[in-house]
Design goal:
Arc Repressor Mutant, subunit A; 2 domains; 6-stranded mixed sheet; Rossmann fold; alpha/beta
């Protein structure tokens, strides 16, 4: 049964998908997927015109992902787009030492969200620029993504031509932010927290666990993102509880926010 989604931004992408399919029907603009179509979560499909620009696209909305994969062919003469519908699958591809020139990801997805995905890429020392492509217009969320290393934040309401222009800017080493948005430097000095509220001092790994915890990730997901054991995550969590004088995750996150130890607020829902 088809379900109608009353969402203007997503509706515009649905229309784009159908228009692109019509535009490319009977042409050589975009080849058929190399893999057979599989509608299971996490399926990877590649659209290729030979060796060239390699892009990883992560979006749990299949129709949106397919539309973008077609549109991205206009970025260069030779473009290969690998599409994943879960961040977990995308990370598994990265773990196979697959290199990409550009990574695009949605912000809100089941399991590990866009911020968690950025953490995972950072811990794996991925050098490719990462751009968030989201329907949200919440500047706080855009700032959170930039704080975690995103090279750009593109709203899905942006016209296709402007989106391609923004991506070309990023590929040339630049940054792209929504119109009217001015990113704020997120450099936080731990020395500012030292001597306050009981001489709280946290290590860099504990701060990473705290931020991933604030983003809603479970211990298992944090372990995967940081490439450490779940037991190690539990150890860091217990040390956080002790340092912050709390007894549960919710209180830990709230105290971390109060002390400005977390780059982004926990409520990042649209």
């Amino acid at each position: 049964m088809l379900r109608w989604r009353d969402d203007t931004n997503h509706l515009s992408w649905y229309k784009l998908s159908f228009s692109l399919v019509r535009r490319n029907r009977g042409s050589n603009h975009c080849t058929r997927p190399l893999n057979s179509v599989n509608f299971n979560a996490g399926v990877t499909r590649k659209y290729a015109k030979g060796k060239g620009l390699k892009i990883l696209l992560v979006d749990d909305h299949r129709l949106v992902a397919d539309a973008m994969a077609v549109m991205l062919q206009d970025l260069a003469t030779n473009v290969e787009v690998t599409v994943c519908h879960t961040t977990q699958h995308a990370l598994s591809i990265i773990d196979k030492k697959t290199n990409f020139d550009l990574i695009l990801t949605d912000m809100f997805m089941p399991g590990i969200d866009g911020l968690g995905f950025l953490h995972g890429l950072k811990s794996r020392n991925v050098q490719a620029p990462v751009v968030i492509v989201s329907s949200t217009e919440n500047t706080r969320i855009a700032q959170a993504a930039i704080d975690q290393g995103a090279a750009g934040f593109i709203q899905k309401s942006l016209p296709g031509a402007e989106m391609l222009s923004a991506l070309k800017k990023v590929l040339q080493g630049g940054k792209y932010y929504p119109a009217g948005f001015e990113p704020v430097s997120s450099n936080k000095q731990l020395d500012e927290t030292a001597g306050q509220d009981g001489e709280i001092k946290l290590g860099s790994r504990q701060l990473e666990v705290l931020e991933l915890m604030a983003a809603g990730n479970s211990n298992k997901q944090i372990a995967q993102l940081l490439e450490i054991s779940e037991a190690t995550v539990k150890y860091h969590t217990s040390q956080l509880f002790k340092a912050l004088g709390v007894h549960n995750r919710t209180s830990c996150i709230r105290e971390g926010q109060r002390l400005n130890l977390i780059n982004s607020a926990t409520d990042l829902s649209e």
